[in-house]
Write a structure and sequence with these properties.
Chains A, B: Pfam families: Lactamase_B. Chains A, B: This is Zn-dependent hydrolase. Chains A, B: Residues 14-174 form the Metallo-beta-lactamase domain. Chains A, B: Keywords: Hydrolase, Metal-binding. The structure is a homodimer of 233-residue chains. Chain A has 233 residues and is α/β, with parallel strands linked by helices. Chain A has a single domain (6-214), classed as Ribonuclease Z/Hydroxyacylglutathione hydrolase-like (Metallo-beta-lactamase, Chain A). Chain A has six helices and 14 strands. Chain A is globular and about 50 Å long. The relative contact order of chain A is 0.16. Chain A binds chain B through residues 1-9, 11, 21, 23, 25, 37, 40, 43-44, 46-49, 137, 167, 169, 177-183, 185-186, and chain B through 1-9, 11, 21, 23, 25, 37, 40, 43-44, 46-49, 137, 167, 169, 177-183, 185-186.
Chain lengths: 233, 233
């Protein structure tokens, strides 16, 4: 049975957030929520009649601020984050292979997929993978800051994400071209940066990108390591 | 089992298009595709490994041009449209109660829901309803052109859409506030225009709106009545 998430978009930062609805229609999990949309996202949960069980982060974002802390405060949900991202206030610190349970019978598996940042994870749920900034549609996240490593990203994608079944649906953390979803099979065959490329080639390609620093980075990373809440609050 | 569509967005006209994936992962239907995104939408179908069975329209749109004709030409899919919308080149002309079948076991039921336009329909599939411009999240479509009627829209929403189960997920044709999905139960209780309002009140409210004419209207309606293809082509 094909079960998809509800995909939400932030136009300013081209960020996707996702609501995963339990099959028993009682509860949900949100992945990578964006600060300025916290009321919109609560309204979605209310309209769908769902209790928020967890707020998950794929990593400490550099381009937008999370609403995780706010959602936790308002709903009583638990924040669950990658243990390697320095997000200290989160109740649950996740490591590779951990399983998050919600609803009557939902299992989300944690895959540690470093490369965009050293702590980045992906989440696997019912034939879907939420890849954050590790694997994008026909691309991948940058690897030049926050302990990023093109070598690690290559190993994460080729060794872990491309080992998932070809029909697995890929839901990225961003898209800048209006694209929404892909599959592992398509990315294995066609991804412009990673398909049919050696680790050396990939490293050279990433080193040549010379990307500007994200405008919000110096604000966003410390804020996100505090779940988006003001420090000292 | 909760099965959601893939929801796609056009930023220019705030239009949602939807891909409904058959459970056997072989084929799909697209609802209300937008002209300028036809290549994006084909790429989605290719990435998901799906053959396009049908292109559906909820009505002849006034604010954007459809890619239906283009998608039919390129993929061999069939266009299925409401019989009351004057979209003459479409192979299948739908009426209330018709059922569209695709994949091994998929059924889409057609509900004639006039009011935004006289021909408008909604589509019901696996606990989801695609309401076009009849019912929006916390609102509804305008009723002041294209044989629109606030009386007819009221009867469509109260009599047909609100008769669906409360848990039915509502996927609108547009949203202008970043909202994505609602439920029949929530709209029955809270919709700002239609919840707990008499037909007379609703008529007065709609008559007082005095909305400007859509910029693209004189181009879009004739184009959409030809499935978005150039006339004489």
């Amino acid at each position: 049975m094909n079960v998809n998430p509800v995909q939400l978009f932030d136009v300013d930062s081209s960020t996707f957030s996702y609501i995963l609805v339990a099959d028993d229609n009682t509860s949900a999990v949100i992945i990578d929520p964006v600060e300025r949309h916290w009321q919109r996202d609560l309204a979605h949960l209310e309209r769908l009649g769902l209790k928020l069980a967890y707020v998950l982060e794929t990593h400490a974002h550099a381009d937008h601020v999370t609403s995780a802390g706010k959602l936790v405060d308002v709903t009583g949900a638990r924040a669950a984050v990658p243990s390697g991202c320095g997000i200290m206030p989160a109740e649950v610190q996740l490591k590779d292979g951990d399983v998050i349970r919600f609803g009557a019978d939902e299992r989300i598996e944690v895959l540690h997929t470093p490369g965009h940042t050293a702590g980045s994870v992906s989440y696997v749920w019912r034939g879907n993978v939420f890849t954050g900034d590790t694997l994008l549609i026909d691309g991948c996240g940058r690897t030049d800051f926050q302990s990023g490593s093109s070598q690690a990203l290559y190993d994460s994608v080729i060794g872990k994400l491309f080992a998932l079944p070809d029909t697995t649906r890929v839901w990225p953390g961003h898209d800048y071209k209006g694209q929404s979803v892909s599959t592992i099979g398509w990315e294995k065959r066609h991804n412009a940066r990673l398909a049919n490329r050696s680790k050396e080639d990939f490293g050279a390609l990433m080193a040549a990108l010379k990307l500007p620093k994200p405008i919000l980075m110096d604000i966003a990373i410390p804020a996100n390591q505090n779940l988006g809440l003001p420090h000292g609050a």
